[in-house]
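DATA SHEET
Item: assembly model
Revision: 1
Owner: S.N.
Input lines:
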Amino acid sequence: MAFMKRSPWILHYDASSCNGCDIEVLACLTPLYDVERFGIINTGNPKHADVLLITGGINAQNREVVENIYEQIPEPKVVIAVGACAATGGIFRECYNIIGGIDKVIPVDVYIPGCAARPEQIIDGVVAALSILEEKRAKMNGAAQETEQAGEST
Amino acid sequence: MSERIIVPFGPQHPVLPEPIHIDLVLEDETVVEAIPSIGYIHRGLEQLVQKREYTEYVYVAERICGICSFIHALCYSQGIEHIMEVEVPDRARYLRTIWSECSRLHSHLLWLGLFADSMGFENLFMRSWQLRESVLDVFEDTTGGRIIQGTCKIGGVRRDIEQEKLDEMHRTLDPFEEKCRDLGDVFLNDETVKYRLQGLGVISKDEAYALGAAGPTARASGVAMDHRETGYAAYGDLGFKPVVETAGDCYARCAVRVKEVYASIDLIRKAIEGMPDGAIDVKVKGTPNGEFFSRAEQPRGEVVHYLKANGTKHLARARIRTPTLANIPPLVKMLPGAQLADVPVVVLSIDPCISCTER
């Protein structure tokens, strides 16, 4: 965890899961797993968040909500799809109201397998997402410097 | 008269892990009307019976809700067993009861934690969830899964619990109960908790009955309705009595669940002591033909699985009525009169499980 310089805040949204993954996400925050020791905090406000953690597949009604939340999170941001149904629709893939996995609507950076995903796997996934977040931030900073330099030279 | 404003609550809200949307009509700080809208996690699981074989649907039934997963599978299996006239062995009935009550324990401890969180009592949230982990350890140990077990099947159960394991469980029940009583003591006797909960979101016995409240929401208003009394699985042998409170406020709903935690521990103890020997399943042959209303008591109330079979591998129709759906009309009745700051507490007091509600 030496590379973690910042404390990432997580926004959790239940798209259409069975609740199983959601309670495992919450279990990560509680004393046995306690991700808060890494500075990870679960927030309710999209504008405070760096990481969007979604469980469950996309259906007709929550599609807009997911897009809306994603739009509100400031750049750089990463999206984690937790569980089989967030990846592909999982056991619900044949249901008439399920459009598919999260990546049908918004870009996903990390997929966490499992039905339901275990807290250890979720923590693993979040750690993987954090290095992607750092890369994205470095890229953004690099791009910002380039435009600054381009501005100076003209 | 002051002006009315509408404040939207949800679907993405810090206090709720699940999406439900309620439009709160406010006059100053007081709620005068609550208009719920649901459908954010509707999947269409009832229709899936036509695509999955009746034996496979147990897994789908289990995933209607990740918290009461075992009891959904149990309710569905009991329905099919009744249609096919399958007699489940005694040991399977007792094992089912143990896992059902473990489900209830982990669900109630989870709810107590979330409820404490909705009051802003963070410490109590953490303590409840810490205690809940020991129930999940039992699940992992005996079934392999923490929250989705996959042990229930038509005709019995898939796994046995060895005698050594049962003895160990029995030994750990006493220290576990002590910890639960410590925790329950805070919920029942702490001044801050009482101050926040007493007299909040009151619903009378008649109203609760007329609006069709289920489970702890009904029992907190004095409606002594618990499906376990009918003695499905092994409840008939264990001498079960429902927990009833009469005040009908948030404190009473909390008290019912705290006391049900103790009752569940007691039931598990009795089930382990009375565990009969023998087979854990019977072979099920053929296909079901007929219909049945299967009912079971979930942590949130009574769940109904209506199953209609037509003699093929796929059922013709399933209809699932879950307790949270029944508890939404009482919730709409409870909210008017509450302060805006108390709304999360009142909403959580019915223990909303939206995944169940919307199937």
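QC remark: Residues 4-358 of chain B form a domain with the Cytochrome-c3 Hydrogenase; chain B fold (CATH 1.10.645.10).
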